[in-house]
Design brief:
alpha/beta, Carbamate kinase, Archaeosine Trna-guanine Transglycosylase, Chain: A, domain 4, 2 domains, eight-stranded mixed sheet, five-stranded mixed sheet, 17 strands, binds glutamic acid
Length: about 375
């Protein structure tokens, strides 16, 4: 399909630049950053709303103190991220300033978007920055993030940011031209509509020496983007005026095209959360939830695994174990063990008066 058609309704764009796209020989590259800033400013002039997700803090910080990223311990990486983040922002602030665009820094960890309240706070801040004509510049808060609360790489972070602000397009710029099904191919795959097992197998193992991403994390990001019905482009930051040319509709890099299914804000947040357990449904409940678009009641539950509390996120599955959806549960696993398979009147007898009719309310439920 012509690229122009695929991107014609795009208004809001998240651009992610990898460490190798903002550094040269281990130190920050004013030239590379100037090229990215120049393209983003032009897109802003054309009326696009752009959020920038940038890597490079650890690289720039280590490089400024003559250290190689590959040999650093985790505490050293966190320390050099603190150093490099200010170097990065200085560079962006001065380059965007020359184009008359103010910038604002947002540092996130996965913890900040797991909790729905904090997810909404982050969204409000980003929306306000965009509304004020300020370019939000996002990175992972590497200096304080430990493994348990990390996105891990900025490809994943940028997919979350795109979902947070309902972006129409995510552009991942790095040192590769796109996704190749076979490295002997002369050009990358032009369009991808589904992430197949073959794509995942092909993506495994490829990586750059500079950032943490690699092709696998880009494909994981694409999975999220496709699920939300959005689009994503993988392209090479070295291509001249790459962002402008992508938005002009040139066939550059690989475009991933999402299904036409738009989830609402709360359901998007839900789709990105990791479940704490699985609830098994009988056939009637599977049909009620899937076809009837009903809430989940205790009477249709035959079993559960995992230990979870009220308000946690759980997956739901048929008796064959196939996962069919995910939702916020109104009962903890201990209570649910007691009331599974029971009707509301029986639940009252077991748990007392103050009970929820639904184990998962329809508004808190997504079906895959
Ligand atoms: N947040 C890291 C940094 O700024 C980069 C993570 C990545 O390479 O994906 O250095």
């Amino acid at each position: 399909m012509p690229r122009k058609n695929l991107i014609k309704n795009v208004k809001r764009i998240v651009v992610k630049v990898g460490s190798s796209s903002v550094t040269a020989r281990g130190v920050i590259s004013g030239k590379k950053i100037a090229a990215i800033v120049s393209d983003i400013s032009e897109l802003a002039n054309r009326g696009y709303q752009v959020v920038l997700v940038t890597s490079g803090a650890i690289s720039a910080g280590a490089g400024s103190m003559k250290r190689e990223v590959l040999n650093l311990t985790i505490p050293e990486k966190q320390a050099y991220a603190a150093v490099g983040q200010t170097i990065l922002m200085n560079e962006y602030r001065s380059k965007f300033g020359k184009k008359g665009l103010p910038v604002g820094q947002i540092l996130l960890t996965e913890d900040d978007v797991k909790n729905r309240q904090r997810f909404l706070n982050a969204r409000h801040t980003l929306e306000t920055l965009i509304g004020l004509g300020i370019v939000p510049i996002v990175n992972e808060n590497d200096s304080v993030a430990v493994n348990e609360i990390k996105f891990g790489d900025n490809d994943m972070l940028s997919a979350h940011v795109a979902s947070l602000i309902n972006a129409d397009l995510l552009i991942l710029l790095s040192d590769i031209d796109g996704f190749y099904m076979d490295l002997a191919d002369p050009a990358p795959v032009e369009e991808i509509y589904h992430i197949t097992d073959a794509i995942i197998a092909r993506a495994g193992g490829t990586g750059s020496t500079c950032g943490t991403g690699g092709m696998m994390s880009k494909i994981r990001a694409a999975e999220i983007i496709i699920r939300f019905g959005e689009k994503m482009v993988i392209a090479n930051a070295k291509t001249e005026n790459v962002l402008i040319r992508i938005m002009n509709g040139e066939k550059i890099g690989t475009i991933f095209v999402g299904e036409n299914r738009q989830l609402t804000g709360k359901k998007r947040w839900l789709a990105l959360r990791k479940p704490g357990g699985v609830i098994i449904l009988d056939e009637g409940a599977v049909t009620a939830v899937r076809v009837g678009k009903k809430s989940l009641l205790a009477t249709g539950i035959t079993g559960l695994t995992g230990s979870f509390s009220m308000g946690d996120i759980v997956e739901i599955a048929g008796k064959d174990g196939n996962r069919i959806g995910k939702g916020i549960v109104n009962y903890g696993s201990l209570e649910l063990q007691k009331i599974k398979g029971k009707r509301s009147s029986e639940i009252k007898k077991i748990l007392g008066e103050n009970i929820y009719d639904e184990v998962i309310n329809r508004d808190d439920l997504i079906v895959y």
